[in-house]
Amino acid sequence: MKQKLMFTNHPGAAIDELAAGMSPSKVFVIVDTNTEKQVLPLLAVMSESVAGAQVITVGAGDVNKNLDSLAGIWRTLNESGATRSSFVINVGGGMVTDMGGFAAATFKRGMRFVNVPTTLLAAVDASVGGKTGINFNGCKNEVGAFAEPEAAVISTIFFNTLTTQELLSGYAEMLKHALLEDRQTFIDLLDYNFAGTGFDKDRLLTLLQKSVAVKERIVSEDLHEQGIRKALNLGHTVGHAFESYAMTDRHSPVPHGYAVAWGMVVELILSHMELKFPSDMLQRYAAYVRSNYGVFDITCDDYPALLKLMSHDKKNASADRINFTLLADIGDVRIDREADVENIKAALDIYRDMMGI
Ligand SMILES: NC(=O)c1ccc[n+]([C@@H]2O[C@H](COP(=O)([O-])OP(=O)(O)OC[C@H]3O[C@@H](n4cnc5c(N)ncnc54)[C@H](O)[C@@H]3O)[C@@H](O)[C@H]2O)c1
Ligand SMILES: [Zn+2]
Predict the structure, then answer these.
(1) Atom 4 of ligand 1 has which residue's CA nearest to it?
(2) Model pTM?
(3) Which of 103, 116, 209, 217 is most buried (CB neighbours < 10 A)?
(4) pLDDT in tens, 295-319
């Protein structure tokens, strides 16, 4: 993986160093309307290249990760004389890093770009791994490209203005990485919490660095998602089902990371049933999720719809068996495990019991 990861709470210096090494013809900064207000002024004070860059602002929120906004970025690049030797700095959450990365990867067949993630989710997930793109025709991430930034400059100093909900949403992906890695990494995360007036930025940066290293290792082993990258689906088969169900059936969307946190409870129960995943770790995780994320409330009447969503999520060949990434232990990943519907229903029963529903 050629992407350079820079973990620093002095991001301005890192960005300027990168820019100096490239001697770009022109520098562009892509932000959304929120990061333009909340992050750009801070970063402009720290970085000469950001202060002197041409700013391109897109609408905030995933609804704006679309062709119109992308065309707007291309148009501004075109009208401002951007060339292949120009340089793009994406400053934002996953929406900006996905779309800004795709704009940079396609304009003039590819300009160099750097991601400066400003949400925890973008730092731990979206800005690393080379997936870029936009939503299209009602489908998420339908058009895109694998394109790696020159670097991701990862800091926790921008997270002050995020809500606890946004922080916890990103933290669920960190919990996932820890489960894919080892017991100590996982316990360190359970011991750290965001409660109270603030969080320890430097400690979070250290935890983040470890977490991103897990994704980086898995992605570098499988850049085009042929095999082991499916490990990163842990929690997502059930999580996506919860997420879609909340959105389309209940008209009450839940954050992606929350759905993943709940989904991982179900998938760890399934891991325990199928592969003897240790029950002490399962109990600790479920208790952590319950007290920090609350519960996703379901009854057995919801099972048929949830199972249908799970089987669609993975394009399963058979309706009776659904494909999962499971764990035999923390760090012991088994991809392409099929579970049958009766076991999944039993896991959902245990989930309701453990979560006190
Ligand atoms: N490429 C990948 O591998 C990958 C992986 C996971 C998610 N994603 C994508 O990432 C996106 C979700 O990421 P996200 O949660 O970061 O979404 P986002 O970029 O929409 O950010 C969430 C909200 O927080 C605001 N925001 C960003 N930084 C802020 C800050 N520091 N202070 C205050 N507000 C701030 C944004 O303006 C937005 O309103 C989705 O589009 C998803 O498809 C991509
Ligand atoms: Zn996810």
Answers:
(1) 126
(2) 0.93
(3) 116
(4) 999 999 999 999 999 998 655 556 6
